[in-house]
């Protein structure tokens, strides 16, 4: 997490965040540990207990039946279904194009030394689909569709018991093989350890609240996870050509997600900085979700003015924002100079909202500066690249002698013997 005093040279904060989004999660680790232990030892019974406790749910059966899937699908109005299928098609198209860049490999590195790799889909993936305050119809699309494109054998979806029926329809249309009405840390536990009804998965993906995030952190190891997701983030990089109304609109579009959303403007134009702050205040007077967005802006909003493009880029790369928009005179050229971000939106016509909903790139992205070392969820997260090798006698003659010598110098006699045995057998022939 970037600290407020970690400013590169040439950067001045006109408006600094009042709080740290990374430090405002509270202590949830102890409760999550309790939930994980209970589900691991008591299975479905513990899941039911926590469903009653946290979700006020008395479900006797967690899995969504085929009839319930059909009913949820029938409950979608025609336009919502068409829009959902439009988004699914776009996400699938992009994931298929990404997968096409990941190819098997076979090569002869040395005469007689053959090696390569395979692109192997994971067996079972668990997709956590958050409920939230609104039915986020894009959420299942972003986690389930790339898994199916990758060739995952079984895709499990878990969503809170009180999730909107449209979310079940979204999971179904996206291709989920099984859907469970289980939310929170108990859903992560059920997928990580398996219960009487929920199969154990190989990897868990998808965003959630602080309890879901902590549960993913604690189960990591025996199962994989995509990433640890913090509150949403958006930053806009702009020069004198920036449009204050458009920038303010995009900042507030993300701020309405959550009161802990981190929003910011980094600019080389002090006049634009002042205009954006004024425009944010104006738009908050008419925004239907202003209660949430205003709190996010008050606590986590930031405006920084830089004395050069170099300072603007340095500060942006330090923050490594989840969503990064470029509103500069030559946005394409400027974008090529950026290094750290979750997803990049080049030019003022490329709004984060398009990616959030339906354009095709994935909206499950790194937060809290994780964009310095990783990208977002993509089709490659659902496969593994596993290497292999095979040798001919000529290959053994090439690699065994240096392997024998290296093993001997390291004092690893077992290694030396394993390398020497094949060489001796070949020489004896």
Automatic annotation (TrEMBL):
Coiled coil: none annotated. The active site is at 322 (proton acceptor), 323 (proton acceptor). Gene3D superfamilies: 1.20.5.1300, Nitrogenase molybdenum iron protein domain (3.40.50.1980). Substrate binds at residues 232, 254, 257, 323, 356, 410, 415. GO terms for biological process: L-histidine biosynthetic process. CDD domains: Histidinol_dh (cd06572). Binds 1 zinc ion per subunit. It comes from the Bacteria. This is Histidinol dehydrogenase homolog. The keyword NAD applies. The keyword Metal-binding applies. Belongs to the histidinol dehydrogenase family. PANTHER family: HISTIDINOL DEHYDROGENASE, HISTIDINOL DEHYDROGENASE HDH. SUPFAM superfamilies: ALDH-like (SSF53720). Keywords: Metal-binding, NAD, Oxidoreductase, Zinc. Zn(2+) binds at residues 254, 257, 356, 415. One of its GO terms (molecular function) is histidinol dehydrogenase activity. It comes from Loktanella atrilutea. One of its GO terms (cellular component) is cytosol. Pfam families: Histidinol_dh. NAD(+) binds at residues 128, 186, 209.
């Amino acid at each position: 997490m970037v600290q407020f005093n970690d400013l590169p040279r040439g950067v001045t904060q006109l408006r600094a965040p009042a709080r740290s989004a990374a430090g405002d999660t509270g202590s949830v680790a102890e409760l999550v540990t309790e939930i994980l232990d209970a589900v691991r030892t008591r299975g479905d019974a513990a899941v039911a207990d926590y469903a009653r406790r946290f979700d006020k749910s008395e479900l006797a059966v967690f899995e969504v039946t085929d009839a319930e899937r059909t009913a949820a699908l029938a409950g979608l109005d025609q336009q919502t279904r068409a829009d959902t299928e439009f988004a699914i098609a776009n996400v699938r198209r992009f994931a298929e194009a990404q997968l096409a860049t990941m190819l098997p490999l076979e090569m002869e590195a040395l005469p007689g030394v053959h090696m390569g790799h395979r692109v192997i889909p994971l067996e079972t993936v668990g997709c956590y689909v958050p409920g939230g305050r609104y039915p986020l119809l894009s959420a299942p699309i972003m986690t389930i569709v790339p898994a199916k494109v990758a060739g995952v054998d079984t895709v499990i979806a878990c969503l809170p018991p009180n999730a909107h029926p449209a979310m079940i329809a979204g999971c179904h249309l996206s291709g989920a093989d099984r859907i469970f009405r289980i939310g929170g840390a108990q859903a992560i536990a059920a997928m990580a350890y398996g219960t009487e009804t929920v199969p154990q998965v190989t990897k868990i993906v998808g965003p959630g609240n602080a309890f879901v995030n902590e549960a993913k952190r604690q189960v990591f190891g025996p199962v994989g996870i995509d990433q640890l997701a913090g509150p949403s983030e958006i930053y806009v990089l702009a020069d004198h050509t920036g449009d204050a109304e458009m920038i303010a609109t995009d900042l507030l579009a993300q701020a309405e997600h959550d009161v802990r959303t981190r929003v910011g403007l980094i600019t080389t134009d002090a006049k634009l900085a002042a205009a954006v702050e004024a425009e944010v205040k104006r738009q908050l007077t008419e925004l239907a979700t202003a209660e949430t967005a205003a709190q996010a802006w008050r606590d986590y909003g930031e405006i920084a003015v830089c004395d050069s493009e170099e300072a603007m880029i340095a500060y942006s790369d330090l923050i490594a924002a989840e969503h990064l928009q470029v509103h500069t005179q030559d946005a394409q050229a400027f974008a090529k100079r950026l290094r750290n971000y979750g997803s990049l939106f080049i030019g003022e016509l490329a709004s984060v909202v398009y990616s959030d909903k339906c354009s095709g790139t994935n909206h499950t992205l790194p937060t809290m500066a994780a964009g310095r070392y990783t990208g977002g969820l993509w089709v490659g997260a659902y496969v593994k690249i596993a290497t292999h090798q095979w040798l001919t006698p000529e290959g053994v003659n090439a690699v065994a002698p240096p392997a024998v010598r290296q093993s001997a110098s390291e004092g690893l006699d077992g290694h030396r013997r394993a390398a020497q045995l094949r060489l001796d057998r070949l020489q004896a022939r």
